[in-house]
Design a protein that fits this description.
By secondary structure, the chain is mainly alpha-helical. It has helices at residues 4-32, 45-66, 69-73. The protein has one domain.
């Protein structure tokens, strides 16, 4: 049986992984497809995708705050916070 701490750590790891993928996609859209990162940019396929990724990352951030990810991140061996 999984206890609450293990469950929160698993949720944290999953949310962080999805956030990292979204960050990579955002970078790809900006660098390779010249998506304009400004919120008021002219709409195009790339800027629309960038907007959706930004919204997804905001929701991921809410989820991470809900499980108090800042506390979990201190023991995360691969967290950038530890560098």
């Amino acid at each position: 049986m999984v206890d609450d701490t293990d469950r929160e750590r698993a949720i944290y790891q999953a949310l962080k992984a999805v956030d990292e993928v979204a960050a990579a996609l955002q970078t790809h859209l900006i660098e390779e497809h010249q998506a304009d990162p400004e919120r008021g940019a002219t709409q195009s396929t790339s800027t629309s995708s960038l907007k959706l990724l930004r919204q997804a990352r905001e929701r991921l951030g809410e989820g991470l705050r809900t499980i108090e990810a800042d506390i979990i991140a201190h023991s995360d061996e691969i967290s950038l916070r530890n560098e």
